[in-house]
Each structure stands twice: as C-alpha cells, then as structure tokens.
Amino acid sequence: MINKILEIIKSGRGDAGRLDHIVQTLRRGTPLYSSDQKYVDSLLGLNTKPELDVSPRTESAKTEQDDLREKLARKEITIEEYDILTELRKKRSTQRPSWRKNKKLHLILSLAPGLVGLQGLGYFQLRKYRWGIEVLAVSIIAVALFFAIPAIQRSDESLLPSNTTLRSIVAAIWFSILGWQFYDTKKLFEESITDRRDRSYKSRQLRSVGRKYCLVMGGLGILAILGIALTVIF
C-alpha cells in the first residue's frame, strides 16, 4: 500500500501533503480514517461506491478537515498537531448539538427581543457576555430617552427641534444598532459553528466600527437623559 501511494505522489496525482500524511500514518502502524482510506482507494481505482452523505453537517466537517490538510501541506502544523486536531473535530462532531448552536433560537434572540427594546440577547447565547451587556444597556438607554423627550422644558428661544424630530432621530439610531447587532451576532454564530474566523476585512471593519458606534451612542444617550433631567429640575 505504501509503495503504491509513493508511486501516486511521484506521478503528481492527488494532494501531496495529504498523501504524505497517509504514508506517515501507515508507517506508524495506525489505521487510516475512513475518509483517507476512500481517498486512497479512489486514486487507486478501487472506490466503486459513490458517497451518499451530503448533509450540511457532513459538508461542514469536510470543510474543516480540508482546512487542516491544507495547513499540513503548507507545513503550518505538524503531523502530530494534525492528528490531535482531527481527533478533537471527530469528538465535537459526535456530540449532540446544544442550545448554543441552535440557529432558530439564535435568530429569535438576536431580533425578536430587540423589537421591544431588549437588544443584544443573541450575544449571551454565544457567551459574549460583556458585549451583550453593553448592547442591552445602550438599547435600554435609547428606549428611556425616547420616552423622556416629551419632558423637555423649552424656552421661547429654544433651538431644539420638535419632540417628533428628536424621537425620529433616537428611533433611527436605535434601529441602526438593532441592524448592526443582528449582523454581528450572525457572524459570531457562524464562526462558532464552523470554527473559522470571518476572513472578510470589510466585514471585520464594519463590525468593529459598529461596536464603537454603539458605545458612543450609549454615552450620548446618557448625557441627553441627564440634560432632560436638568431641564425638568431647573
């Protein structure tokens, strides 16, 4: 078997990094994974049964395994590290999905509570507690400010816009934060499922700017509420 695989490598067929790993595994006397055995059989013309499992979960597992093989071929990880990571992936794939990986629950937590003023609950599902608390606090501040605007005491020479205009501004900011946190938690959920970091530079920048925007709006909201309180008191 080893000699046949070496001949395949010399002929330039197949993935040289993967085949080299298979050779090293066989020399250690370790049984091959079924996927590696099928890969070798297909190159040797011994694989006559088509693969029928095309479920999303299987496709995701194949993608993760392909990433590991690419890293091994580029020598970013050693064979020992490859074996350890492969074992961890197999154990994780056999575990029953928890509520933290429930996509429907994630969509509900990220969007539905936000419509009634409780944004950021999707972060708690992903164990991003600090981010969740920050977004939730900003959301509550925005709601409080929205209902506090009618209490503003204006003088005849006041330059402040009308209550309707101010409420429209607060609502626009509130909805922009809702849209951003929904997008951000969606990306975080995808990363937690696939164990792959968001590779899009623009996406990462947008998410980073969104977090800063959220915190700045929260700070301005607190100042606005304090200003309204002062107009009422004095």
Question: Can you walk through the features of this model?
Answer:
With 234 residues, the chain is mainly alpha-helical. The chain has two domains: 2-94, no CATH class; 100-233, no CATH class. The protein has helices at residues 2-11, 16-27, 34-44, 56-73, 79-94, 103-111, 121-125, 129-148, 163-194, 201-233. The radius of gyration is 27 Å and the shape is rod-shaped. Residues 47-59 have low confidence and may be disordered.
Number of domains: 2
Instruction: Describe the sheet with the most strands.
Output: none
* Helix-and-strand structural type: mainly alpha
Oligomer: single chain
The number of helical elements comes to: 10
Q: Give the percentage of residues in beta strands.
A: under 5%
Query: Residue-averaged pLDDT, rounded?
Result: 79
Succession of helices and strands = HHHHHHHHHH
Q: Please tell me what the overall shape is.
A: rod-shaped
Describe the structure in brief:
This protein has 234 residues and is an all-alpha fold.
Core attributes:
234 residues, mainly alpha, 2 domains, rod-shaped
How do the strands and helices of this protein lay out in sequence?
Blueprint: H1 2-11, H2 16-27, H3 34-44, H4 56-73, H5 79-94, H6 103-111, H7 121-125, H8 129-148, H9 163-194, H10 201-233
Helix pairs in contact: 1-2, 2-4, 4-5, 6-9, 8-9, 8-10, 9-10
